[in-house]
C-alpha cells in the first residue's frame, strides 16, 4: 500500500513542480522581461501612446475622442462643439446591456451592407449635418465634397485619425468659430498630416487630438478678438 501511495505521489509532485516552474517562468519572469524591454526601447508606446498638453495627459494617440457641447436638459445626444475639429462618427459606441452591474463602454462600427436602410439613414443624416456645420458665409460645402470617413465610423468606432480631406473640409468653419485666418488653420492641418507608413502602407491621416491641441495653442497665441 505504501508503494501505491508513493507511486501516486511522485507524479503529483512532479506535476506540481512543473506548474510552479511554468507559472514563475511564464507568469512572472516572461512578462517582466517583455515589460522591461518595452519600457527600455519604446516607453511611449508601452505606456499607451499618451498625449500630453501643459504637462498633463489629455488622451492617447491611439484612441479617438469626441468634442461635444454639454448636454442640454432633455437632450439625449450632445451637439458637436464646432470650435474644434471633429473626429469620425462613433455611432457604434454604447453601454453594455448584458452586464448591468458595470456600464462598460463598447466599441462598434456603422458598417452594414450597402443597401441597408439603417446605414443609408445614418449616412444621409451625417452628410447633411457635415454640410450644414461646415458651410460658412461665402464658402458653402456641397455633399460631393464630404469624404466617407466624415459620415461612417471606423471598424472599432475608436479611430483617432481622420483623412486630410475631412480635416481640410473643416478648416473654414474652425477658422470662423475661432476668429482665425483660414490660411493659418489650413497650414496647421498640413503640419499635422502624417503620410503613409514606410511610404506605401495605409493612407495619409490627421490625428484629431494632436491637431486640436495645436489649434488651442494657436487660439491662445492669437488672443481675444
Topology readout:
Layout: H1 2-41, H2 43-46, E1 50-53, E2 56-60, E3 94-95, E4 105-106, H3 117-134, E5 161-162, H4 164-169, H5 171-177, H6 182-191, E6 193-194, E7 205-207, H7 208-222
Antiparallel strand pairs: 1-2, 3-4, 5-7, 6-7
Helix pairs in contact: 5-6
Commentary on this structure:
The chain has 225 residues and is mostly helical. It has 2 domains: 1-47; 49-222, no CATH class. The protein is 44% helix and 9% strand. It contains 7 helices and 7 strands. The protein has helices at residues 2-41, 43-46, 117-134, 164-169, 171-177, 182-191, 208-222, and strands spanning 50-53, 56-60, 94-95, 105-106, 161-162, 193-194, 205-207. The model is unreliable at 92-96 (pLDDT under 50).
Low-confidence stretches: 92-96
**Overall geometry:** elongated
Largest sheet: 3 strands, antiparallel
Approximate helicity band:
40-55%
Amino acid at each position: 500500500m505504501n508503494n501505491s501511495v508513493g507511486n501516486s505521489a511522485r507524479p503529483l509532485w512532479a506535476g506540481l513542480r512543473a506548474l510552479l516552474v511554468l507559472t514563475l517562468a511564464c507568469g512572472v519572469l516572461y512578462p517582466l522581461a517583455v515589460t522591461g524591454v518595452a519600457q527600455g526601447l519604446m516607453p511611449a508606446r508601452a505606456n499607451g501612446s499618451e498625449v500630453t498638453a501643459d504637462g498633463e495627459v489629455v488622451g492617447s494617440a491611439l484612441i479617438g475622442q469626441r468634442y461635444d457641447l454639454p448636454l442640454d436638459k432633455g437632450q439625449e445626444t450632445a451637439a458637436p462643439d464646432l470650435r474644434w475639429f471633429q473626429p469620425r462618427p462613433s455611432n457604434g459606441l454604447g453601454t453594455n446591456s448584458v452586464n448591468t452591474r458595470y456600464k462598460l463602454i463598447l466599441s462598434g462600427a456603422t458598417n452594414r451592407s450597402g443597401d441597408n436602410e439603417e446605414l443609408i439613414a445614418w449616412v444621409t443624416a451625417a452628410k447633411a449635418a457635415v454640410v450644414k456645420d461646415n458651410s460658412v458665409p461665402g464658402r458653402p460645402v456641397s455633399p460631393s465634397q464630404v469624404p466617407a470617413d466624415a459620415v461612417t465610423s471606423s471598424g472599432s468606432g475608436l479611430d483617432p485619425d481622420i483623412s486630410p480631406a475631412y480635416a481640410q473640409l473643416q478648416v473654414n468653419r474652425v477658422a470662423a468659430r475661432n476668429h482665425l485666418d483660414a490660411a493659418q488653420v489650413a497650414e496647421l492641418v498640413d503640419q499635422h498630416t502624417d503620410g503613409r507608413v514606410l511610404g506605401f502602407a495605409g493612407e495619409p491621416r490627421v490625428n484629431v487630438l494632436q491637431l486640436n491641441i495645436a489649434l488651442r495653442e494657436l487660439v491662445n497665441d492669437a488672443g481675444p478678438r
